[in-house]
């Protein structure tokens, strides 16, 4: 399994979508946040009501749960255990550093092989991308500050680091990832 970590606006979703177009399977997380323009329920995430999410959480359905205090209210994210345990080298998921820390014991105790990839980008590029996708300025500022805290001391989790430079392009980034993981690219 490939676990993609990165701050908001680094291109995680774009990279995962490119990998899916190459035959990888996205492990979808559940969330209570509002659906964005262009997203589809069951494709990008499983969008749940707060009540649905809490019911799943009470039934120990998730391997990890993350709560965000946003400018629009509280948003929850969770990763289904069954999807992690059924993953293989062609599975890919986006997680936060806390998410990785939370699922590591489950993966390790079940001998699930995984590689954690940290995706980075310049702060100016991140801010521009967040504006382009329609994020409100208050939410952009909140996300940047939260990421500063969330990504502190996450280096011990990372197996591979990639930079999503402005001129790099997502297909080239996916090529680089596959080359570094497997010694080949599609």
Give a description of the structure:
- This protein is α/β, with parallel strands linked by helices and 186 residues long.
- It has a five-stranded parallel β-sheet, with helices on one face.
- α1 packs across α7.
- It is globular and about 45 Å long.
- It has helices at 12-21, 50-58, 81-85, 97-109, 123-132, 137-150, 170-182; strands spanning 2-6, 25-26, 30-31, 46-47, 62-70, 73-80, 91-94, 115-120, 160-163.
- The chain has seven helices and nine strands, in the order βαβββαββαβαβααβα.
- It has one domain: Rossmann fold, CATH 3.40.50.300.
- β5 and β6 form a beta hairpin.
- The mean pLDDT is 91.
Instruction: Please count the beta strands (DSSP E, at least 2 residues each).
Output: 9
Which value, in Å, is the CA radius of gyration?
16 Å
CATH level-four homologous superfamily name:
P-loop containing nucleotide triphosphate hydrolases
Number of domains: 1
Shape: globular
End-to-end C-alpha gap: 17 Å
CATH architecture: 3-Layer(aba) Sandwich
Largest sheet: 5 strands, parallel
User: Helical element count?
Assistant: 7
In helices, the fraction of residues equals: 25-40%
The CATH topology is Rossmann fold
Query: Structural class, from helix and strand content?
Result: alpha/beta
Query: Order of strands side by side in the largest beta sheet?
Result: 2-7-1-8-9
Strand-residue proportion: 15-25%
Question: What integer is the average pLDDT?
Answer: 91
CATH class category label: Alpha Beta
Query: Unreliable runs, pLDDT <50, ≥5 residues?
Result: none
